[in-house]
Design a protein that fits this description.
Layout: E1 4-6, H1 21-41, H2 55-81, H3 84-106, H4 123-148, E2 152-154, H5 156-182, E3 192-193, E4 196-197, H6 199-224, H7 229-249, H8 257-297, H9 299-305, H10 310-329, E5 333-337, E6 343-346, H11 348-354, H12 364-367, E7 372-373, E8 376-377, H13 378-386, E9 394-400, E10 406-417, E11 424-433, H14 435-471, H15 476-508, E12 515-519, H16 520-531, E13 538-543, E14 549-553, H17 554-570, E15 577-585, E16 588-595, H18 618-621, H19 629-639, E17 643-649, E18 653-661
Parallel strand pairs: 13-15
Antiparallel strand pairs: 1-2, 3-4, 5-6, 5-11, 7-8, 9-10, 10-11, 12-14, 15-16, 16-18, 17-18
Helix pairs in contact: 1-7, 1-8, 2-3, 2-8, 3-4, 3-5, 4-5, 4-6, 6-7, 7-8, 8-9, 8-10, 14-15, 15-19, 16-17, 17-19
Amino acid sequence: MGQHQALPVAVYNLLTMPSNRAQRRFAYIIGALVTLISLFTVPFVRIQLGEMPAFQPAIFSTVVCFELITAYVIYSQFKISRQPAVLALFAGYLFSAGMSLVYILAFPRVFADNGLFNSGPQTSVWVYSLWHIGFPVAVLLYLRLEAKHRNVRYSSRKAKLAGWCTFFGTIILMTVFTLFTTHFVERLPTVLSQGQLSPAFVKFVGIPIVVLTFITLLIFYVRTKASTVTSTWLCVAILAMMLDVVIVLCGGGRFSLGWYVAKWNSFVCSNVVLAGMIYEFTKMYLNMADLFRKVKDSEYSYKVLLGESQQAERTISEQNTIIEQMLESSHEAIIMCDTVGRVIFANRRVELFFENPIHKGDCLFTYCEGMRASDTAFKSIVEAYFNQTIPPFLKRISRVSHSGEMKHYECYVNPIVDEGADTLRGHLFGFRDRTEEERIDEMKNEFVSIISHEIRTPLSSIMGFIEILATRNVTEDKRVKYVETIHKESMRLSNLINDFLDLQRLDSGRQVFHFQTLNTAHLVGEIVDQWQGKDNHEIELHVLDESLFIHGDEERLKQVFHNLISNSIKYSPDQSKIDVYVERENGRVHIKIQDYGLGIPAEALDKLFGRFYRVDNSDRRKIGGTGLGLSIVKEIVEAHHGKVLVESELGRGSIFTVQFDEHKEG
């Protein structure tokens, strides 16, 4: 390839995206506002305001940042278009950023009394002048190169060389100007006296800068017609720079109203083009996507446009990678097929769901072997869909995993059709794992079953005995017995409701714990006393250390131990002894409740603290319960940063151990 080549088709970049009427109207409104504010300020420019030391660094730090970012963005567009004119704009913004930085560093009383770099009182004025001369000159150079070399596109190697040359050339120019205005400032004419510009400076420097900037604005607008978003906002930037100089020339010393407005115009000048480019960036990618579609439509067009669309292809490739990564990170298994059912793409979750690798080109309905939808093989449904005998569907399917577990999924299918062309391109299948939802549904059904039983049983007793008391004459002994039964069943209902309320509060995070220092032996001893003798059970408390303290909510911990002791009594109907131990082990407080009753099957231990779980055993069915007690115990103990453990041997009893960190009193 030669050093440069002609451009038969425009390369899309941030500098060539066209603007519409609404965008131009908005830019003109901003320009008009800047102009009106500046003109309104002119009669009041000499009003002296207070000196704000932070104003200059704040404004110019943003100015320097905005202009450096703009320079970087423009250079990135040069790397796309490789047109020499773009380098002129890059140099202009790089020069403007550098001179802005020198200006603020050399400004008196910002970083040093007379500024840095051995500056003098005149340095910042001369830096300001060179800064405001350099930018319009760069814009004029851009217009000249654009007109003369519009169709020139550098080779990659020459573009890189030209970019580095422009960068270092601009740096050298800024360095020369900095040295010129600092070390040789005494040889320059005095242009600032007591904060006021000299008439000679206004006449021979200031007014020519205004004229130069105005001519630049006029030529730029006539040449570009503000036809792109970048050129539209660049007009506003040049206007703001011109008004900046005009206000300075109108008088008003440093820290006057005019001086502050001029700095505001510098801020506007630095950021409007960047804002326009950021907006244009979005539109550029829309055009890139459209260009890619056209390239894919025709192999011949693809070859012709290959050289001009390299950057677009790289960008689209990155976008495709992002889309693939998004599909790969999806919680759904996604398969894309062609029109006859051959796999085009499948994310990794497909293999995770169905434990079977899938490859590009595989037949989907063959892959679905072994899956079922209701009472029908899912394979036959997929095959019927590709044969166009059934419409797109949403089905629930199931399969048995390699471990023997039943897995449930929801499958939906959508045809992929070209928008507006009604051309079928393929089909998208999505599989959502709803095994957990099925488990929750089973839990809900179990919950309804348990609740209906647990509520109906005491409610039937209450209603039956109330009916007897209301309709029959009974002896005093029977009346007392019936009332006691009604009270007992009412308490059973109340405890059931309290369990649900406790669980709901723990789930929602609304359970409030009131922590305090508690003596473990006293706390457990009080509960043991309350259960002593219940259902003919003797509870023996073994306290190995009376001075063990824990940090917790007294009422909630009482609820824990009430529940555990109640369970021990309930599930040891043929035994009469319960042992409770309070001891220290490995620096932690351990409370153990040991019974000698039915025990728990080994396969049930890991499910014991789950909600609504009850051991399915004929010995336990008559005991009753909702299966919520131990789950509430676990929630409360873990809220205290503790653990609850269980050891059991079927037919020989169980040991429940609650562990807490020891809390030192005081």
